[in-house]
Each structure stands twice: as structure tokens, then as C-alpha cells.
Amino acid sequence: MAKRIVSVASQTPTATADTTALASGTYPFAIQGTSGTQKTNILEVYLGGQAGASSPSIMLLSRDSTIAATVGATTTTDAALDASNSALSSPVVTGNTWTTAPQRSASLHLLNLSFNAFGGVVRWVAAPGEEISIVGNTASLGEVSLSAFTGGTPGLLGAHAVYETL
Amino acid sequence: MVGKRRHEGYLMVDHRSIEGVPDALVVAHGLPVGSGRGLFEAPTYTCSHCQTVVVMNPARTRERAYCRGCDHYLCDGCGATRAANGGLCKTFNQIADEIISAAEKSII
What we know:
The complex is a heterodimer of chains A (about 170) and B (about 110). With about 170 residues, chain A is mainly beta. Chain A has strands at about 1-10, 30, 40-50, 55, 60-65, 70, 75-80, 95, 100, 105-110, 115, 120-125, 130-135, 145-150, 155-165. Chain B has helices at about 25-30, 75-85, 90-105; strands spanning about 10-15, 40-45, 55, 65, 70-75. Classes of the chains: A mainly beta (about 170), B alpha+beta (about 110). Strand 12 of chain A pairs antiparallel with strand 1 of chain B.
């Protein structure tokens, strides 16, 4: 068990409707299980606004009804929180550029993190044992994404999520 | 005595330096009135049946759905489902265990 952090330094998300392909590089990240027996907990999600003008952004952490496939060159980073951690043999896949794009589920939104990216900050932390889980590697429980919902005018932001594969 | 507050997560939305988000937008997405302005801090709980994170509106007077089977608060949707099913408790962790168990059997 090792806590890791997936983050995107700076990005302007594109507002995308549910069950619509999330275009590469237009959402902070998706986190996908690697095997059918893998379970990963999300412990924390943070968004910090970097926009230069008012930008109400409806950011959703949601399960994906269409699982992404084949991660490409992403603008995300994924690092161990503890420098002494050894690498997992089957690490969770994270990124925002995939050959097959993920699609946000219309019914399994998990967390609404609406905020104004013009300097706003939003952070959610789970209580121990109350984390959001990713189970297996198939729809709809095997992948979670952070993306912008339709409405508002998403602005430049940075984001991270802390997760732990069990 | 262990209370239910041990289940509470934490949500912080900080708009102290800017105008924030209009109520119409945040309320439409299930957040409390005023949560888009100034500093908003609230406890959250994770529905043990579906893992949706619920922001606990301090102004809410309606009873929260609660499951005695797993000793957790539920989201309104799962609360209604539980009531319709005669109080059936099936937690997300049980579903996860079933998925993992099925995957392990298919590997073997």
C-alpha cells in the first residue's frame, strides 16, 4: 500500500456533457484500475484556480460509464507521496490523453467541486475508511475521472488527487 | 462511545479573495445556498451504499437517511431505495468484494 498523487499543474478544462467522450487534455485526469482484483481509494481532491478573470467551473469527480483505453502522452504527473515507496507491480493508470477517451457516467457523479477558477480553491478530504473506491478495471466502477460539467465557463486551474492502491 | 462524526470528511471552498460562484449555479448542483461565496467549510459523508459524497448542509432540517445495517448515513437516493426494499443493506464494500472475488475465480 502506497499513497500516490496524480496532478495537473495548469490546464483549462472543457465543459463536457455526461456520456460524451472527454477529449484529450481537456480534463484534469482519469484514474483507472489495472486488474479485475485491484482496489484503489481516493483520499483527497484539490483544485486551485489560476484564471485571470471570473470563471465559474463545475468540476465533477465521477465514475466513468465508458472506460478509457491506452493512455498516451499526458499532461499529468503521478508520483509517490513517500520517497521511499517501491513501485507497484501493477500500478494504477492515470492520465488525460487516451486512444479511447473516457466518458463520464450520467448517474454516478460522486463529488461536486464547483468553484470560481479566478483564484478560488476547493479541497475535499475523506475521513479514514470513507474514501471513494475504484474497483477492478471495467465500467462503471473501475475508473474515476475529474472533469468539467456543462454550464459555467471553466477557467485555468491546477488539480491533484491523492490515492492509495490497496 | 463512538459517534457518527467519525465518518465525516471535509470540504473547503475558498472564495474569500474573489466574487465566487452564484447561488443559482451551486444550488443546481446540490450544494447549499451560499457555498459559492466567501469561505465555505462543511462536513461531508460518503454514502456507504453508493459512495456518493454528500455535503452536509448545516441548514437542513429533514431527517438524513440512515442504515442500521452498516451504521452509516446514506444519500437520499440510496435511502429511498433502502426503504423501498424493506431495509435491505448492501454496502459498496460488499459489492467491491463480490467483484474482486468473481475476478479471482475467473483467474483461477
